[in-house]
Design brief:
Jelly Rolls; alpha+beta; 405 residues; 15 helices; Serine Threonine Protein Phosphatase 5, Tetratricopeptide repeat
Length: 405
C-alpha cells in the first residue's frame, strides 16, 4: 500500500542512526586525541585541521608567550577561555601576555584567579610566590614554596636558597620557622644546605634557635651540618657552645662528660666516631665482667692508623688522660691512646695499652696543652702495625681528658 513503509525500514534506519552516532563519537575522539597530540607538537597545524579545542588554543597561546608575541598570545588565550573559563593554563598564558604588554594590574588579577583554581599549577604558584615576596607576605610565600618543594625535587634548590635568604630577615625567619615546624619532607635536606650558605653566623643561629623553640625541635641530623661546619673551620668553642644550647646535643654532651662508649647516637666529631681503619673491627656491647656498656676493638696489626676518636675542646693547661682497658688477646701494646692537637697538630701524649688479660684496669697519661695553636684535641685510639697479621683484641670503658691538679 502507498504510504506504508517496508517492514525492514525501521531497523535499517535505527542501524543508520547508530552508525552515524558512532562516526560522530569517533570523530570527536579523534579530534580530541589528535588535537591533544598536535597541541603539544604543532598547535598551528591543529588549528588548520579544524581541531581548535581550548587545549589547542592554549598551546598556541603558550607558544606565542615563549616567542614574545604577546598580542597573539592574549588573543589565543582569550579564545580558549571563551570555551572553558576555568582553564588554568589559559589563564596563566593570558596573564603572561598581559604582563608582557605592560598591563601589570590585569596580569596580577588573572594570575591570582588562576592560583585559586589551579593550586597544582607550578608556574602559577611560582609567579604568585614572587608576588608574595614583593609584598613581604612571607607566610603566603613560604606556603607556596612548601607546596612546590613537596611536588618537585627540581624546585628544592630554589626553595632552599629562599630559606637561606629568609634567615637574614627576622620577619621572614618567623614565617619560615613556622613552615619548618610542620616537618615538611624536605626539612632535613634544607638544614644540610643551610650550613653551607654564605649567611652570617647570627642569621643561621637565629633560624636554628627559632626552630628549636617551636613544637618540632632540631634533630641530631639537622644540627650536624652546622656543627660540622664550625669544626671544619676550626671554631671548636662555638661548636661546643652549640651542643650545649640545642636538645639534639644532649646525648653528645653526656658522652663528652663521661667519655663512655654507648650505643646512643651522638654528633660527630664530639661523639666517639669510627675512623675507618682497614683491619679494625668495632662493636659496642655489654661490658665483660661488669654492668654497663663498653667498646670491643679487634685489630689485625697489619695496617696502622686511627681506629676510633672524638674531639675535645681544651685550654692551655695540664690535663690527665684517664681510661679503662680489658685486654683480651694478642699484643695489645699495638693499641695506643693518643692526644693530639686538632685538626692535624702534634701528638701531646701517647699511651700504649697493657695490663693483665681478662681484667679491667685503669691507665693514665699526662698531657700539657700549649699556649697557642691547640684549641681542641683528638682523643684517638691508634693501631701501630707490626708487619704481619695477628689477632689483637681488647675492651675499653670510658676514656676522658680531665684537668690536671
Amino acid at each position: 500500500m502507498r504510504g506504508e513503509q517496508p517492514v525492514g525500514w525501521t531497523a535499517r534506519a535505527k542501524l543508520g542512526l547508530v552508525v552515524l552516532l558512532s562516526l560522530c563519537l569517533a570523530r570527536l575522539a579523534i579530534d580530541q586525541g589528535l588535537g591533544g597530540a598536535l597541541a603539544s607538537r604543532d598547535p598551528a597545524r591543529a588549528v588548520r585541521l579544524g581541531l581548535d579545542s581550548e587545549q589547542v588554543l592554549t598551546a598556541l597561546a603558550e607558544k606565542a608567550v615563549r616567542r614574545g608575541e604577546f598580542p597573539l598570545a592574549a588573543k589565543m588565550a582569550q579564545a580558549a577561555l571563551d570555551r572553558s573559563p576555568l582553564n588554568v593554563p589559559a589563564l596563566r598564558a593570558r596573564a603572561q601576555a598581559m604582563q608582557g604588554l605592560g598591563r601589570t594590574a590585569e596580569a596580577r588579577r588573572l594570575i591570582a584567579f588562576a592560583g585559586e583554581r589551579g593550586w597544582r599549577d607550578n608556574q602559577v604558584q611560582a609567579w604568585l610566590l614572587d608576588i608574595d615576596l614583593q609584598r613581604r607576605d612571607y607566610r603566603s610565600a613560604f606556603r607556596r614554596a612548601d607546596a612546590l618543594a613537596r611536588r618537585r625535587q627540581a624546585f628544592r634548590p630554589a626553595v632552599f636558597a629562599l630559606g637561606g635568604l629568609a634567615a637574614a630577615d627576622p620577619i621572614a625567619t618567623e614565617a619560615f620557622a613556622e613552615r619548618l615546624a610542620a616537618r615538611p619532607p624536605w626539612r632535613a635536606q634544607f638544614f644540610e644546605v643551610l650550613a653551607q650558605t654564605p649567611q652570617t653566623d647570627e642569621a643561621i643561629e637565629h633560624l636554628l634557635t627559632r626552630v628549636e623553640q617551636g613544637p618540632a625541635p632540631l634533630t641530631q641530623g639537622e644540627l650536624s651540618g652546622w656543627i660540622e661546619r664550625l669544626t671544619l673551620e676550626g671554631r671548636y668553642g662555638q661548636a661546643q657552645e652549640a651542643l650545649s644550647r640545642f636538645q639534639a646535643g644532649r646525648a653528645t654532651r653526656e658522652q663528652v662528660r663521661t667519655g663512655a662508649f654507648t650505643s646512643a647516637p651522638g654528633l660527630s666529631p664530639f661523639a666517639w666516631t669510627k675512623a675507618g681503619l682497614s683491619g679494625a673491627d668495632i662493636e659496642i656491647a655489654g661490658a665483660p665482667g661488669r654492668s654497663g656498656q663498653a667498646v670491643w676493638i679487634g685489630y689485625d696489626g697489619f695496617e696502622g692508623g686511627d681506629i676510633v676518636r672524638r674531639l675535645v675542646t681544651v685550654t692551655p693547661r695540664d690535663y690527665r688522660l684517664i681510661g679503662e682497658v680489658y685486654p683480651e688477646s694478642g699484643a695489645i701494646d699495638r693499641l695506643r691512646w693518643q692526644v693530639r692537637c686538632a685538626p692535624d697538630g702534634p701528638v701531646l701524649a701517647e699511651r700504649p695499652m697493657s695490663g693483665p688479660a681478662a681484667t679491667w684496669s685503669r691507665f693514665e697519661a699526662s698531657v700539657r696543652v700549649p699556649v697557642v695553636g691547640c684549641d681542641a684535641v683528638w682523643l684517638t685510639l691508634v693501631g701501630h702495625p707490626q708487619g704481619r697479621r695477628s689477632a689483637i683484641s681488647a675492651w675499653f670503658g670510658s676514656v676522658v681528658l680531665e684537668p690536671g691538679t
